[in-house]
């Protein structure tokens, strides 16, 4: 089994490997090119993101700068938005669903290092995947740790450190991140009412 296969299988591996170095270089070059684009190069940005990620849906927008290790190990669904300074450490696979929004400086960290110092300093690493469902909003400066799955229709509060799985249809906040409450019908009614008021006001202007 190669180091790349071990890495993607959540086993110990060594990053100082020719295949991984090539993949890493590929990701870093495309990320640098993307971060150096201007607002007049939106089509070029889309082209770079399609080359960078393992797969990417329609209407994906990322504010530069952002940072990623490989890119090839990350898949993103449709209607995705990431604000400034997001960081994806995709040693393990990162899977992001549809209609997902990230605030600034959201970090997805799949990488880990052995707790034992003697093994760690010999260059061994591992990675556990991160999965984010559909219709998720993650607030600024939140950190998603290795092995975490976030369900559908979830809001993660800003500054949260997510160390465990988060179920569907909840607001979760804190360090470590915990479920605050379920998202319910009252939430839907509140925001639908405000949307209708907005539409009515705009139609009368």
Automatic annotation (TrEMBL):
InterPro entries: Hexapep, Hexapep_transf_CS, LacA-like, Mac_dom, Trimer_LpxA-like_sf. Residues 4-58 form the Maltose/galactoside acetyltransferase domain. Its EC number is 2.3.1.-. It comes from the Bacteria. Signal peptide: none annotated. The keyword Repeat applies. PROSITE patterns: HEXAPEP_TRANSFERASES. Keywords: Acyltransferase, Repeat, Transferase. GO terms for molecular function: galactoside O-acetyltransferase activity. It is an enzyme of class 2 (transferase). CDD domains: LbH_MAT_GAT. PANTHER family: ACETYLTRANSFERASE YJL218W-RELATED, GALACTOSIDE O-ACETYLTRANSFERASE. Belongs to the transferase hexapeptide repeat family. This is Acetyltransferase.
């Amino acid at each position: 089994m190669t180091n790349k296969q071990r890495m993607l299988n959540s086993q110990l591996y060594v990053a100082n490997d020719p295949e991984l170095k090539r993949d890493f270089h590929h990701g870093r070059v495309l990320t640098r090119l993307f971060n150096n684009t201007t607002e007049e190069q939106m089509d070029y940005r889309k082209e770079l993101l399609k080359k960078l990620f393992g797969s990417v849906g329609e209407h994906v927008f990322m504010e530069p700068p952002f940072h990623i290790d490989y890119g090839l190990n990350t898949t993103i669904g449709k209607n995705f938005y990431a604000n400034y300074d997001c960081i994806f450490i995709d040693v393990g696979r990162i899977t992001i669903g549809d209609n997902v929004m990230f605030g600034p400086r959201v970090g997805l960290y799949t990488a880990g290092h052995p707790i034992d110092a003697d093994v760690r300093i010999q260059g061994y690493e591992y990675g556990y995947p991160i999965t984010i469902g559909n219709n998720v909003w993650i607030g600024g400066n939140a950190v998603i740790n290795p092995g975490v799955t976030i369900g559908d229709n979830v809001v993660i509060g800003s500054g949260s450190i997510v160390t465990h799985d988060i179920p569907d249809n909840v607001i979760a906040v804190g360090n470590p991140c915990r479920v605050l409450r379920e998202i319910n019908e009252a939430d839907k009614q509140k925001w639908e009412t405000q949307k209708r008021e907005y539409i009515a006001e705009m139609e009368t202007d």
